[in-house]
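Hey,
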Amino acid sequence: MNAAVRATVRRTALALTMGLALVLGSSGTASGAPGLVPEPNDPEVVEAVAAAVVPSIKSVTARADVPGGIPDAAGITVTILSGTTQLASQPYTDLKGAHPRVDLPAEEGRIRTVDLTIKVSNGRHTVTIPWTAQVRPLYRIVVSDLRLKRTATPRCDPDGSMQVVARWVGPDGTPHEASGTSPDRVYHFPEFVTTLTDVDVTGAFSMDWYEQDPGEPVPPQNFVTAPLAFAASPTLVGHGQLKEGGGDCAGRLSYSYTWTLRTF
């Protein structure tokens, strides 16, 4: 091979070697080179997602929200666990982020503390976040009208002209009052109908009632507690025995109410 040919071959080999080195260098040094975007499997990306987690709980619904827009985080998974049991999991997306949620057991409305864990992982790198949360089950309660049936006695309103005044105090402390007469001694108070939203099992109300003859002074009042008791049955009936201050008139009040567990 003459000198001109040998020089051409060397230049070609050098050009090929340099070209190959440039391709390898741009790929092989990306994760470690300063100023370059990290790959999705880098620990700092997983840690950035973990730092953005916002845990929250309302009623029985536990959530771990991470906003979208974290660079190179697509495919990282956010998981809610109880012990080693996975309760909810969702992969991160650039547009929506990740928002795993789970409805915990209501346990008949019992307010309690639970220990959960949020795990952020891409399969190679994992960050765990301990989370102690208070579960306070919330309910929507629909209460019916109030019904009062008086007991017929010779000394209590023989002609059915007595006016019955019902007064009660709602769970928020607001007083209410309604009145009426009934020849058949059965009274309905539609003003009692109400809907309570996002209340726990401690929510209750009481009734302060009295019976009154038209034009006569208000007699001594009896105080009756009528709690919205929780039970496994979703629809319950509250009731109580009422007695006028002098003891001549008595009656039975009743109302129904339905509990519906709230989730978010």
